[in-house]
Write a structure and sequence with these properties.
The complex is a heterotrimer of chains A (about 190), B (about 250) and C (about 55). Chain A has 6 helices and 6 strands, in the order ααββββββαααα. Chain A is an alpha+beta fold. Chain A has a 5-stranded mixed β-barrel. Chain B is globular. Classes of the chains: A alpha+beta (about 190), B mainly alpha (about 250), C mainly alpha (about 55).
């Protein structure tokens, strides 16, 4: 064996060894290192009971109720329902919402479940997908799909499609499946 | 197998001349691509239907993140070539890549957090994508300081190359983190075998900036590589002759 | 050209600071690379002159 060949094997050995151990760690952590849990996982009792965790899902249309906070006048109390199209979790939050928070938007709430199964959140983050398009295009897409979009459970097929395409794991695929956000008219066009 | 051609190609004087000749073209291409892409993307591309004008941060964020990963891959590859074939110019390339990559890793992290604050609602989350990109920054810092930690530069080069090689597993982790784990960060807009999830009016400026950044990386790499070669080969005759010409 | 979208729909602070940061990085990279090259060149030239003086 030439020294060069030996060095090549050492380098490949380092790469293979580190790669294999990291691959094993990644596989093991896919169950444990969840940035957020789906409502289905909570329904199945997989979410921690005595610890804070994150729940991610789609804000169910028509479920958002905002009332001005009694404690802080500039904040609002919000109640909404998060869904992954199979199970739902009611969420209570007071504070400032991100600009992307809308009905039909994927959001991630951080907090704890109370005894009644309501998720008490102290932080709400909005998720967005990797699709970008001008408002006019989104508007015409929305009109075309108007029939589909109005039904609450209808986006399932699209979610299944993008899950099949391997674009994202469980919740993420469903959360990002369809551009359901209303096109606000005040978005400036250049 | 006969490797003499390869060694001649990778000889310091040859690489030095090549870098000197290539750099102006790379700088010019980079300036064109970045200037066109940024102006078109920031002013003339339509706003996003959800994020409005905040989405325009993509035109500086995505190219920085891309550069941070390609600089690392180049650095690890150059280090591996140097380790296996004892081609010293590989260590010079690796040493030249590190500060460029580290600076754009910082850029990707900060622009990402400036994008995350208005859209997600937070500057930072311990999300798999964000965390693995932060690890990339620490890897860069570790490699840069490891190279300087040895009194014998040759040993510093070897140690840095080994650490770079070990850390290269982080590159696919960063890339696939958004698919492997539940993540706050969205998936890839540009995937190799998929249609981009963006119309042409938004895509063309982005591709232009991306190309510009790649050329920019090549250009700065040329300049830094020349400096590295000058320092590393300062005893050699060809440098002696080159600098004696007024 | 005066009606260019500088206000970025209310996100000006975030968009423009990101752009400024990355432009700053581009400039820093060119500046620091050229400075290193100039220093290396100067040192090589000095070493050559010292050697030429000795011989």
């Amino acid at each position: 064996m030439t020294p060069r060949r030996k060095r090549l094997l050492i380098v490949l050995g380092i790469l293979g060894g580190v790669g294999a151990s990291v691959a094993l760690a990644v596989m093991a952590s896919r169950e444990n290192v969840m940035f957020y849990f789906d409502p289905s996982q909570i329904a199945a009792g997989q979410a921690p009971h005595d610890k804070r965790f994150r729940v991610g899902g789609m804000v169910v249309k028509g479920s958002v109720v905002k009332t001005s906070s009694q404690v802080h006048p500039d904040e609002i109390d919000v109640r909404f329902v998060l869904s992954d199209f199979q199970h739902e979790v009611p969420v209570k939050y007071s504070g400032v919402l991100p600009d992307l928070f809308r009905e039909g938007q994927g959001v991630i709430a951080h907090g704890q479940l109370d005894a009644n199964g309501t998720f008490l959140a102290d932080e709400v983050l909005a998720k967005h997908d990797e699709k970008y398009m001008p408002p006019e295009v989104a508007g015409s897409l929305k009109k075309q799909h108007a029939g589909v979009m109005s039904g609450g459970a209808a986006p399932k097929s699209t979610a299944a499609e993008s899950a099949a395409a391997g674009s994202a794991p469980m919740g993420a695929a469903q959360m990002n499946a369809v551009p359901t956000a209303p096109v606000s008219s005040n978005v400036p066009t250049t | 197998m006969n490797w003499t051609w390869f060694h001649r190609l990778a000889s310091p004087p040859h690489v030095y001349r090549l870098a000197t000749r290539l750099a102006p073209w790379l700088y010019a291409g980079a300036a064109l691509g970045i200037a066109y892409g940024l102006i078109a993307g920031l002013f003339f591309a339509p706003p996003d239907y959800q994020q409005g004008d905040a989405f325009r941060i993509i035109y500086v964020h995505a190219p920085s993140a891309w550069l941070s990963l390609s600089a690392y891959t180049t650095m690890a590859l150059a280090g591996a070539v140097a380790l296996v074939w004892r081609i010293k110019i590989g260590y010079a390339v690796a040493a030249a890549c590190a500060p460029i990559g580290a600076s754009f890793t910082i850029g990707a992290l900060i622009t990402g957090s400036l994008w995350g604050r208005p859209m997600w609602g937070t500057y930072w989350a311990w999300d798999p994508r964000l965390t693995s990109e932060l690890i990339l920054l620490f890897l860069y810092f570790g490699i840069i300081s490891l190279r300087q930690a040895f009194d014998d530069p040759a040993r510093g080069d070897r140690a840095a190359a080994v650490l770079g090689l070990v850390g290269v597993v982080n590159v696919p982790i960063i890339h696939y983190s958004v698919q492997w784990w539940n993540s706050l960060h969205q998936g890839a807009t540009l995937a190799k075998w998929a249609k981009p999830s963006m119309p042409g009016s938004m895509l063309v400026p982005l591709l232009s900036v991306l190309l510009g950044f790649m050329l920019f990386f090549g250009a700065v790499l040329c300049t830094r590589l020349r400096a590295e070669v000058l320092v590393r080969e300062r005893q050699s005759n060809w440098i002696n002759e080159m600098v004696s010409i007024p | 050209m005066s009606d260019l979208n500088y206000s970025m729909g209310g996100y000006a602070a975030f968009v423009w600071s990101s752009v400024a940061l990355v432009l700053g990085l581009l400039v820093w990279n060119v500046w620091s690379a050229r400075r290193r090259l100039a220093q290396a060149m100067l040192r090589a030239r000095r070493a050559q002159q010292a050697r030429a003086g000795r011989s």
